[in-house]
């Protein structure tokens, strides 16, 4: 078994793609979480304990934290992680990993690749940046990704389903990793000792 704890459906789709790319069988993956970063942090000790029996991947966003090492140190709070525990942080949000496949994402939206920042880790608010790009997309994507004009929601009703579909069908983690350090580090770690721990 390979336990995966994520913040939301989009992070889960990304984690699934990365694990399948690392040749973990889908039937061996169990997903938990999808209740935000606070839930993951609250249950961290459970995931650490579980990693003594099988590999565990915890994927969260950096958001406004200063850097990934400081976020990891704060969450771990002196706890020790075994070799089966993989704590990865998307800088600054998992949306930056999607955007890092500039060619794939440009094709998905139907916009010029030149409109997408080359170093997506420098984008302060990747979700907002993605939504601004979505305003240039085809009408059906605009309707799904963007909130209605008077809506309080930050995103459209189909935001997760559309982006999860993109991840599954079109996103190239290899292309994305070439221009995103935190994604590249996650892929390298998945292809090292954690997989061997199964």
Structure, explained:
The protein is of the alpha/beta class and 198 residues long. It folds into 2 domains: 110 residues, Rossmann fold (3-Layer(aba) Sandwich), CATH 3.40.50; 81 residues, no CATH class. The chain is 48% helix and 11% strand. It contains 12 helices and 4 strands, in the order βαβααβαβαααααααα. A 4-stranded parallel β-sheet has the order 2-1-3-4, with helices on both faces. Helix 1 links the parallel strand 1 and strand 2. It starts with a strand and ends with a helix. The relative contact order is 0.17.
Question: In one word, what is the shape?
Answer: globular
Distance between the termini: 7 Å
Compute the average pLDDT: 95
**Strand portion:** 5-15%
Q: In CATH terms, what is the fold-level topology of the largest domain?
A: Rossmann fold
Neighbour order of strands in the largest sheet: 2-1-3-4
Q: How many whole angstroms does the radius of gyration measure? A: 17 Å
- Listing every helix as H and every strand as E from the N terminus to the C terminus, the arrangement reads EHEHHEHEHHHHHHHH
User: How many domains, in number, for the residues?
Assistant: 2
Largest sheet: 4 strands, parallel
Number of continuous helical runs: 12
- Can you name the CATH architecture of the largest domain? 3-Layer(aba) Sandwich
Helix share of residues? 40-55%
List low-pLDDT spans.
none
Category from helices, strands and their pairing: alpha/beta
Q: How many strands?
A: 4
CATH secondary-structure class of the largest domain:
Alpha Beta
